[in-house]
Design brief:
about 230 residues; alpha/beta; five-stranded parallel beta sheet; four-stranded antiparallel beta sheet; 8 helices; about 40% helix
Length: about 230
């Protein structure tokens, strides 16, 4: 898999590139936001994943993330020293697929890279059997992956849409955390649990319907169908 590493620290990039190469990745190193965007021009060979450090010298990392998402659907994993939920949600709202918080374990990073790449491959190989889900004011168009509330479009990331679509399959039914992680992230890795919580929080915020997704303490989540 080709991977675009966006990291301004050459020592960190060299060490990480060596590790990724040992695990079969073909790494391209971009030292700034502008270099990253140049590497992602439409006519370039495709990357499987973009690993984006937010501490860049020329542009705000969140701004770069937003520009990348407008340019390509390639999965983006943010690398950040900011551990608060608000910062993570902001990144997800801009189109990031996942994040890792510094300092991180190399095994954690590799697991997240493989998880987002597996999910992308699965989406490309399969299609939805249904076309539309209506839940009160919420409309989910499965083939086009579009969501609207009261007729107003809501921009969701890949994982946010997958999570909502999964819960919407059976409104009122509790989905275990392990089941959601397996279906949406295609992994059983326990560290993904915190990512799930952030994605749920982001969905509630974007849809402006906090009660739509209910937390079932100690078990998981369920979608509470709103009144029409």
């Amino acid at each position: 898999m080709r991977l675009l590493l966006v990291e301004d620290d050459n020592h960190v990039a060299a060490a990480l590139s060596a590790v990724l190469a040992r695990h079969g990745f073909d790494v391209t190193h971009a030292r700034s936001g502008e270099e990253a965007l140049q590497a992602l021009v439409p006519e370039s060979d495709g990357f499987g994943v973009v690993l984006l450090d937010l501490g860049l010298p020329d542009q705000d990392g969140y701004e770069v993330c937003g520009k990348i998402r407008k340019r390509t659907s390639t999965p983006v994993i943010m690398v950040t020293a900011r551990s608060d939920v608000r910062s993570r949600i902001h990144g997800l709202n801009l189109g990031a697929d996942d994040y890792v918080v510094k300092p991180y374990d190399t095994g954690e990073l590799l697991a997240r890279i493989h998880a987002v790449s597996r999910r992308t491959a699965h989406e490309e190989a399969t299609g939805a059997t249904e076309t539309r889900v209506l839940l009160g004011p919420v409309r989910i168009e499965l083939p086009t992956r579009q969501v609207s509330v009261n007729g107003m479009p809501v921009q969701l990331t890949r994982k946010e849409f997958d999570l909502l679509a999964l819960l919407a399959q059976r409104p009122g039914v509790v989905f275990r955390r392990e089941q959601i992680i397996s279906e949406v992230w295609r992994t059983s890795w326990e560290g993904t649990g915190r990512t799930l919580e952030v994605h749920v929080a982001s969905l509630r915020s974007k849809l402006r319907m906090p009660a739509l997704i209910e937390t079932v303490r100690g078990v998981g989540y369920r979608l509470v169908a709103p009144a029409a």
